[in-house]
Amino acid sequence: MRDSQPPHTLEITGLTYGPHGVGRLDGKVIFVRGVVPGEEVEITVREDRGSFAYAELHSVLRSAPQRRVPPCPYLPRCGGCPWQHLTYSAQLHAKERNLLEQLRRIGGFSDLNVLPILASPHEFGYRNRVSVRTESGRIGFYAAASHDLVAVDHCLLADTRVDAAIQPVAELVRDLRSAVRRVEIAGRGTLPGVVVLGEVEGRFNNADGTTAIEWLARHSDATGIVLVGRGWRHAWGDEQITLSPEDDLTLHGRCGVFTQVNPAANRLLVRTVLTMGAFGPADRVLDLYAGVGNLTFPLARCCAQVVAVEQHGLAADDARANAGRLGVANCRVIAAPAQRALREMRDTTFDGVVLDPPRGGAAEVVDALLTLAPRRLIYVSCNPATLARDLKRLARRYRIEAVQPIDLFPHSYHVEAVVNAVLTC
């Protein structure tokens, strides 16, 4: 039992790529939440896994100067912001170190040109959409290391419109009869209001159509509701959202398609991709995992042709609609999984490939990319572990010129990275 375990004193030596700090106790690696490197803490081991263990923090015996009181009133119980107790500069430093460690340990790289991390323009209020859990008519986030719901009325990470919608959305969840398990509240970018997306377990209850329409009539700041389940999707009102990957470029999409949650930092990301790619007016570029065109259309402005590949049907349709609305004639959109599209284009020549895969990485397309052999690869990753794994294989034919980390997710351990790789053989 936990209470029978004696307390121990532990020196915290670093932060993991995850919510934990790390130290060693009698040679064993100990993971503990809510700590800062350089601190001495009192802990109780609660879960021994043999070569490592998880521990519970009891008290901080010696505090590090990078510790601060989290401004969020739901901490430390809420698990949504595991690093909010660190100063923002300490978070950035830890993300750089974690990226370097993953590239070294998994990829075997020891001398890469990893540039200083680019900070998010906004530390709080940066998210234009949040995803919350539901339970018994309440919405919120899971407590750390559990499925216990911490109900919230506000979120410091959400932008003004999204934050203001949290309490009305809780009312909607209580009124719906379908089993809504997760809700996303999405700001509409340059358009007014928010859209609400509910993920439903099981079947749709027909009475919810009337509920959705009545709720929208009472809340003018919300323009649309979408409910999705296995094999079905229902929408009411206006579900359109916009994103602006560049200051003078606005794209449209529908609720539920992937967009970056941090619009200001996303513009840093797009500028980094364009700068690293250095593509010119004669270049043909392939954009894999393209979404609604976050990178596609900025690339089309400077290249001869862009071929965008996106397997999500709604997103691919939205990308095509964006090309038509913007009058972009040098862009072709293919609705297909990236692996299949590459197989069908194996005899096509591209000067560059840009890829922005999901967290699982791009292992499925690495061999095809090595065969296609564009002169330049720009790999955008939100997961240092899968990035390191894929780069290790790509290094058979590519030299990695630079890695640029970017913080799109303050107060979490997540970090974005853009890699510039050049064909060598």
Structure overview:
By secondary structure, the protein is an alpha/beta fold. Helix content is 25%, strand content 33%. It has helices spanning 88-105, 160-175, 208-218, 263-277, 296-300, 313-326, 338-344, 363-372, 384-394, and strands at 8-15, 20-25, 28-33, 40-48, 52-62, 129-135, 138-142, 149-151, 179-187, 194-201, 222-229, 232-237, 240-246, 249-254, 284-288, 305-309, 331-334, 352-355, 376-381, 398-406, 416-423. Strands 8-7-6-9-10-11-12 form a seven-stranded mixed beta sheet, with helices on one face. Strands 17-16-15-18-19-21-20 form a seven-stranded mixed beta sheet, sandwiched between helices. Strands 1-2-3-5-4 form a five-stranded mixed barrel. Helix 1 packs parallel to helix 9 (384-394), helix 7 (338-344) runs parallel beside helix 8 and helix 8 runs parallel beside helix 9. The chain is globular, with a radius of gyration of 23 Å. The mean pLDDT is 96.
Q: Any descriptors?
A:
7-stranded mixed beta sheet, alpha/beta, globular, 425 residues, single chain
> How much helicity do the residues have?
25-40%
Percentage of residues in strands: 25-35%
Largest sheet: 7 strands, mixed
The dominant shape is: globular
**Number of alpha- plus pi-helical segments:** 9
Entry summary:
The chain is α/β, with parallel strands linked by helices and 425 residues long. Helices cover 25% and strands 33% of the residues. A seven-stranded mixed β-sheet has the order 8-7-6-9-10-11-12, with helices on one face. A seven-stranded mixed β-sheet has the order 17-16-15-18-19-21-20, with helices on both faces. It has a five-stranded mixed beta barrel with strand order 1-2-3-5-4.
